[in-house]
Amino acid sequence: MAEGQKVVGVKTPPCFFPIKPGEAERLLVSVALQIQLAETKMIRGSTSLLGASNFVAFLVSIPILAGGIWLGARANNTDCLRFLQWPIIIIAVTVMVISLMGFAGACYRLSWLLQAYLFAMFFVVAALLGFIIFAFAVTDRGRGQAVVGRGYLEYQLSDYSGWLRDRVDDPRYWEKISSCLREGRACSGMARYDRDPTTGVSVPESADMFYQRQLTSIESGCCKPPTSCGYNYVNETFWTQAGVAVDDSDCVRWTNDQQQLCYQCDSCKAGVLASLRHSWRKVSVINIVMLILLIVVYVIGCAAYRNAQKVNNNEAFGVNRMTKSRPSRFQF
């Protein structure tokens, strides 16, 4: 059949996309470049997000450190339990250092630094989670008991968890705590005076007024005898025995000596634990918020590390990338 001659009865399909020679290759290259550009933006976006989240984690670790320092200040002035603030301070400082590691690894796309960062972050998250569980477990029990006709609560050592109770039951350890309470003048704020309308002289407040006061747990447990002892009120830290025998060892331990008072009473130990419980619950709220943030940062870090590994190992992102014969072992 001669060239250009049409075959009768055969229809030639129309060409919807006429492509000139060489345009197909240029089109494929253009598509590949667009894919590579999109993937590069994705990598930069994940690393930028990791850097920003670690910067936020660094900032949030500051309140945790402040909470640990606050507990330390209360230990010196109020609670007198000096060992409980150190885990919080150590975790806060560690989070600061690790956040800087993650920030540097994300900015410079250093996969080895991101790998070390992820290892360290995993252990910090586990440690913080364990500390939160421990704090709630040991402070779950123990609350003040209401007394009829009294505005304040009273505290029993038997109401608290065994671990904390064992700490304050240790005579050597409690001697340090009671000395701290005396040196901190824990009962010095108890005294209140009213002016006698007849003489105009300041006198201690009446028993009825004292009974309606809102005392702190340490003031209630350490600065007065338990209500069950039946002592007669003279002033806030001076009471006289009613003469009725009560089967309570704290009634025997109470003394009007202003350097002793009820510092050796079980009610005082319970009051210290109640104050500690209140402080720990406040700090635990901050720790829970920090834990959630660290988990989010850790997930972002895993994604950023994977992208950094792809860049370092030339692993396939699209049609224009070659794949190494031995790709990364670490896949997240």
UniProtKB/TrEMBL annotation:
Biological-process GO terms, alphabetical: auxin-activated signaling pathway
Family annotation (InterPro entries): TET_plant, Tetraspanin/Peripherin
Membrane topology value: Multi-pass membrane protein
GO cellular component: membrane
Main location, first listed in the record: membrane
Transmembrane segments: 49-71, 83-104, 116-138, 285-306
Subcellular location field: Membrane
Keywords of the record: Membrane, Transmembrane, Transmembrane helix
Entry keyword Glycosyltransferase: no
Recorded family membership: Belongs to the tetraspanin (TM4SF) family.
Record's protein name: Tetraspanin-3
